[in-house]
What does this fold into?
Amino acid sequence: MSSENIVCTGCGCLCDDIKAEASSDRLAHIENACAKGAAYLSAVFNMERRAVSLIQGQQRPIGEAIDEAKTLLAKAKRPLIFGLDGSTCQAQQMAIRLARERRATIDDVSSSSYGPLIQQILSGELPTCSLSEVKDNADVLIYWGADPLNTHPRHLSRYTYYAYTDYNPAGWYPKVTLCSVEVRNTGLTAMSNTVFKLKPRQDADFITAILGNEQSATVEADRFLQMVRKSRFCVVFCGSGLISSLDGDLNLFSKMMKSLQQLTKIAVMPMVSEANSRGFTQMLYQETGYVNQVSFVDGVSHGSDFSIHEQLAKGAPDCVVSFDADPFYLLPQSAIPGLEAANVIYMGRFKTPLAGFADVVIPTALPGIEQDGSFVRMDGQKVDLPFLRDTPFPTDEVVISQLMEAL
Amino acid sequence: MKDDLREMRIQLIMFEDVYLDTLRHAEGWESARYQEASAILHLSPNDIKKLDVKNGSHLQVVSSGGSIVVKIKSDPHCDEGYGCIPSGLYSNYLAGHDPYASKVPSLKAMEVTLSPTQQEVTPFSEVLPEKRFA
It folds into this structure.
């Protein structure tokens, strides 16, 4: 066994300094990965954890499951393609083509999280930067509604706070202000130099105060403005807490960023959790001008009508094709009846609640371990994935090309 | 045994828990340890006192989306009037969302009612639809 460099696809950090040694049936050794990443990559080798090829709950050969998926997709009148946040950019591009040819609706998890933020970044309305620009350059790091110690365990150590090479004379804390804007006490708030504690759903009020007319100005908003004003380069890492609190409407936030740009150099970055959600949103944006919630029924249509949640809530799709995404983990239960009414095809790496529910399950290879390809990191940088070992499972690309043959 | 009539309304905040994610990857979503770790409601010690229950006892949590029974964990980092539940099948089950009224599911701040109960923790099987192909 020899040690190979791999990229962890456990979250949007896409750490590319992972060293791994694989034997035939297990990940014998892994270095540099966080606990979450190590558990995720190790699970690939545990056949008990891997999805099993099924048709209506009965174990069948993978080829038969793909044939059944072809049949279900071919007869669908209102197909919905969902997920793809763990697929390679190459597979995402093919899936978008499949959706276009099949006149389907396509969406991913960004629909109920970072979609509006990424849309504004890609359209140039919000300033952004790469993670390599952050390290050693940004002197104020603001995590807003984000808890990286739990969502992206190596974010601080590999890319931001602890990655700095320039230390204070005391030899420990980097010359950077770590700031947390949060509704609850977290590990990050405990270690932050500056904390702005908000009540749930009060982010808009805080932003209004920062935008500062005399009626809304507060001591906390002044403190925030002073911190930004003193900085040379400030980066705002936006978490799902911020997006949720603003109900996905980033206009006020965007206005605040434009105002803060008058004070200092400032950039935003989405704390994307899914490994290649940034890739999917960028790919769909290139193809259609929208990052998610797209219907190809009549050319290109976009809007919340085509979000996975609204589609399922109104029972629109008659066939749901999920690429390694599980609505039971991702959506509130009001979406579930729509899932029960449709034929469901699940293509994924692991057993999940959806795999136990789908009409057809097709186990697929995990990018970064069992196939190569490229992903896009949370900061929009493309990362090429090597692969570690061969696998009996087909890649997403192979399955999609077979589904397209049938059409 | 008859359930208690005490009630308390709080805002429930969903949070990401790296331990839970790690457990799901390592042992699978059906494992007993993952299920047990998912069904934990973090509450401030004062709120636990107000409910007159003990750390580790069970509470019924009722939201506009549904009702589940979870285990309490006393958490001094929790503010009074707020509870925290890890992101997962239980939090999604509780989240009632009207996609026509708001764009993003209100997973980060849900109004819920708590009441002490002697019932067992709700198993995953009760928050998921029946398997089609048992």
